[in-house]
Amino acid sequence: MPQVPQTFFDALAVRTWCGLALAALGRAREEIDAINVYPVADGDTGTNLYLTLESACAAVEAAFAGHEAGAGAGVGASGASGAPTLADAARAMAHGALIGARGNSGTILAQLLRGMAQVLAADVDGEPGGESAHIDGPGLCLALRHAADAAREAVAHPVEGTVLTVASAAADAATEAEGDCGTVARAAYEGASAALAATPGQLAVLGRAGVVDAGGRGLVTVLGALVETFRGEAPGGAGAVRVRVPGRFFDADALDEQVDCVDDDGVSGPAFEVIYLLEAEDAAVDRLRERLDGLGDSLVVVGGDGLWNVHVHVDDAGAAVEAGVEAGRPYRIRITHFGVGDVHTGGAGRPPRERVQRAVVAVVPGEGLAGLYGEAGATTVLARPGEPPASGELVEAVRRAHAREVVLLPNDADLRHTAAAAAEQARSEGIRVALIPTRSAVQGIAALAVHEPERRFDEDVVAMTSAAGATRYAELAVAERQSWTMAGICQAGDVLGLIDGDVAVIGSDVTATAVAVIDRMLQAGGEMVTLVLGDEAPETIATHLETRVREGYLAVDTVVYRGGRQGALLLIGVE
């Protein structure tokens, strides 16, 4: 169904564009994956672009939901409509893309969106009535130009015939256009399409494979959604995108041969792709760029204002991570091996890795628990506080587990629908998935403790579900504002003890509140207390609580884990 066209670029246009672009990338994902031969023929460019934009969309939706909730409570900053300003929506889009960026292509897309957001936000900051602020055609031209320039600056060694070329062509064509946002968007799309068609002549690796650049193809898809946002229908006809060079045949065998060509040319020399988010100062990031540039290639560092997304291909993955540690605090570290047996490379001499029979995929709230779950054999997805994973990220983790059967542990009540969508997608790909509705990481720990891959799948799932269901869970957090709770009114700074998701205890001291929570939970009985300490928990709390349980409850054991930066001060499980 055609979309209602947007006249100007406002917050609603940002939301519409993100949704349309995500849907378009979802349709084109497999096709883009299939033509991915540069810089590494790992067949995941379309997937990485989709996951990056999915994170951007989730952030924009969260911005709208937050303003709508605020307006409903009479405290909305944007008036009765509850809509965010263009600046708010644009910044949310950029931040979501930054924290969710995947792969070389996704990282560059995140910088493109960040470049646009810097113009969109600057154009309305400080204006009254920000909820109705917008930019017109010339403003969109400026945003596209800044996006292309920012993306090129983020890449250590720009190569023509890639998404950078396509982005520059889009900006050039937009600059030459005169008119409203729809006219500018159409010109950018057509300029990008023409540049995309020329990429095989600019990059030899594309010409030999008979394909256009995969990242550029994804950007054209995103720009097509921008046209649809302002014109009400997707571009087509003469402007439709061709992914293969006319007159050239391309199939899976051709991709396998191209993988060999890429190896022979030395283009994909480094063995690992390393990606991480980094909290660091600008000066430290400048030094990091120099260090990583000497370690490998395909270096892209995007972001700013203290938060960066780092992407590089290296032979020494440890050195790349160590460089991040020296620069600041890296997290969400992802290391992918490009070598023989990689799931994406199935050509001659590259037999696909045999699937294991069963695996566990779990969402965990902190680095410490990620290590614990990993030692138990689980594939983990790290959920940073306030930034839950999207369904695409869970699907990717299921694929990464490379198993015929997967047990999925969301470990968060709010992730129930996201996990269900991911499970359904994985099932459509032929993977048998069982979703156990764990509501806390401590329930996941209990489920993992009884996991036995050798027994029948259904029996294993029943045992894990039973163990999780028999585990009551609690957490300690600090109240951010005055609020009504099940235990009464809390003030900002109060320590809240939540049992099974509801506030049960309000206190002023972390340890005393934790004792009160454990006492309440053990009134109903229990044999084991599990404590997962956050980074900000008091140093002595574990010893105090262990002593309390040992002296006050006979035959009840206590086990303590370090959760790292997990959001909650303390997670508690009683089983």
3D structure, described in words:
It contains 19 helices and 16 strands. 50% of the residues lie in helices and 18% in strands. The termini are far apart. About 10% of the residues have low confidence. It is globular, with a radius of gyration of 25 Å. The longest helix is centred in the N-terminal third of the chain and has 28 residues. Strands 13-12-9-16-14-15 form a six-stranded mixed β-sheet, sandwiched between helices. It has a four-stranded antiparallel β-sheet with strand order 2-3-1-4, sandwiched between helices. Strands 6-5-7-8 form a four-stranded parallel β-sheet. 52% of the residues are buried. It is of the alpha/beta class and 575 residues long.
C-alpha termini separation: 52 Å
The Cα radius of gyration reads 25 Å
- Describe the sheet with the most strands: 6 strands, mixed
Side-by-side strand order of the widest sheet:
13-12-9-16-14-15
